[in-house]
Amino acid sequence: MNENSSLDFTYDVLFRLIKRFPPLKVRTSALNGLTQSEHRLLATLMLNLDDEHTALSVTEVSNLLQITPAGVTHLANSLEKAGYIERLSAPNDRRLVLVGLTDRGRKAAEALIADVQAQLSGLLNHLGEDDGQAFMRLIARAIDYFESQFEA
Where are the beta strands (DSSP E) in the chain? Predict the structure, then answer.
């Protein structure tokens, strides 16, 4: 096998492995009936809100989720209707719409995050300490590489 065919084989195997990598599945019954995109929005809010920032603008959520503001609005409509989020006006600019979690949304996001943490913990236990550390280091390097490809 020459060097080019060896590289082609390696790229093919890597591509097939990446395609097979399963998304994390939500097993939490508190989130039944919600889409994976709605799960992501709830978790994103939970991970980016604190005592000082109780809501984010649609633009901020859009940037964090890497979807359009219209996409955020679409997701927010169904989540608001179901009682998971609330829309608020910004105190300094009433034209700006903020999105925050309700108590129901906070509990659901906490359950979702706990479920994902349990799955990741299971993965790291499966890999063992050395392979788990190597896996995280290599994933971080891969992310750094792909992010650098889009920098100006």
Answer: 56-57, 85-89, 97-101
